[in-house]
Amino acid sequence: MSEIITVKNLKKSYGTNQVLNGISFSLKEGQIIGLLGPNGCGKTSLIKILTGLINDYSGEVLIDGQKPGKTSKANVAFLPEKTYLPTWMVADDAVNYIADFYDDFDKAKAMHMMDVFQLDHKQKVKTMSKGQQEKLQLLLVMCRNARIYILDEPMGGVDPAARDFILETILKNRPEGSTILMSTHLIQDVEEIFDSILMIRQGQVRIQDSVENLTKDGKTINDLFKEVFSVDWNF
To answer: Are the C-beta atoms of 98 and 139 separated by less than 8 Å?
Structure first.
């Protein structure tokens, strides 16, 4: 498998607060990678750099050989943690909005998935529940035929039944050969789908390896996470 994302000596700071301290790693194409770490470790800044939302950093970042920008954005589908859709939009507006931006968006599939998700096509975003908003944003992302999917806490704040539904949706709608980088705190719920893990602590890579290697002694990824961050969180 070839490398689809390469990061070398990446540094990012906000004033005197350096959140990424010379981080380096590469991710292989076709894998599902878990991006793990506590709040404040640099995950969100890393995601924003990979998706081209932050440009003031030092170091090298390549998405399929390209620096984050217009070309890479055409290959990356991004699901942010927070709702980004204008509250005045109805569900159909949101579908049309994304269809206008991305040539790889399957509008017919999105309309069908809205029915499967039992979403009202004419309901405004501002009147939707958190779960309904997350379903809408999820289908907008997974109806793109992208090479890379970057998902920031896709199951945060929803009940266990909804988590299973979201996870199934991601797996069923992922194009063959695509790469998924998923940030999550719900490790125990999703670790079974990961091929590899990228664990960050204090702006540096603490662990990067395949799940097979990391769990060969019988430990779970959740167990390993607790060990790595026991100093920070007093587990």
So the answer is: no
- Where helices occur in 123-210 by DSSP H, the ranges are 130-142, 160-173, 187-190
Domains of the chain plus CATH, in order, are 1-75+148-154+184-235 (3.40.50.300)
Q: List per-block mean pLDDT (blocks of 10 residues) for the chain, which spans 235 residues.
A: 92 92 95 91 92 93 91 90 88 95 94 93 93 90 95 78 83 93 89 94 91 93 87 55
pTM of full prediction above 0.70:
yes
